Amino acid sequence: MSLPDFNLLVTLDVLLAEGSVARAAQRLGLSPSAMSRALARLRETTGDPLLVRAGRGLVPTPRALELREQVSQLVQDAQVLLRPHQALDLKGLVRTFVLRTSEGFVESFGPALIARVAEEAPGVRLHFVHKSGHDGTPLRDSGVDLETGVVDSTANPEVLTQLLFRDRFIGVVRAGHPLSQGPITTARYAAGRHVYVSRRGRERGQIDDALEALHLTRDVATIVTGFSTAVALAQRSDLIASVPERYTSGLRDGLCSFALPVEVPPFSVAMLWHPRLDADLAHRWLRGCLRQVCGAEQVQSPPP
């Protein structure tokens, strides 16, 4: 039995990534005619056209879409397997890591992380990009190296997860606010005007459910999309902000913070990354830096 030409895997990976014979040829240093012949061999081998003409470009067939992720992972695994193992030279490392996180996380933990990275690897740059949802596509498609977020049932099972810290919600008001003095009861808390944080546009959350169970309702005066905005509003008004304690640790200087008078479950904040980067020495080092900056518990949950 003749073995298949495994070089075709690399060719197929590049063709599916580029969606163009000319661009794929340029990327692999081949002539367009040579790439066209390689595509013909792939079509013969797989029994599928893989890429078909649509206007001036090529679009993948359903079979090609089915193969794309598997082929990409096989090529990446082979590259890791055949790459010589070398010790990581942090002082000589030149690389940009893209971290997808919220502005509040950057404000609270970014300064310490940037300082740590600069001290150990001055040639490394951190590029923080805004996080707007739980979509794991940027991690899978190489657009993002590392992500932070709350671990919940919607976490993408394709990615690896490691706990950074556990957090809880607390109340925050300006100095001199009525709640900055005396015991904070559920009635006093509910009677105030509140700023509510919702990235998805919801008008109520767990705190409202907890209050409703006690036959109380709070007055939500405004809804914002970020905790740092909520803290800023509480600092300059009589609004009450309910925010994560550790997540906003660097934002609450000069403010009065207090434990919520209602039961709200704590939550876990983790970093997430794609398995293709798990063995990368530089990426491992970065994960270690973030874990230490956040005072992480070293508990890892691989995908099922």
TrEMBL record:
Matching SUPFAM superfamilies: Periplasmic binding protein-like II, Winged helix' DNA-binding domain
Domain HTH lysR-type: 4-61
Provenance organism: Pseudomonas brenneri
Annotated InterPro entries: LysR-type_TF, LysR_HTH_N, LysR_subst-bd, WH-like_DNA-bd_sf, WH_DNA-bd_sf
GO terms assigned for molecular function: DNA binding
Name listed for the protein in its UniProt record: DNA-binding transcriptional regulator, LysR family
This protein's UniProt keywords: DNA-binding, Transcription, Transcription regulation
Membership in a protein family: Belongs to the LysR transcriptional regulatory family.
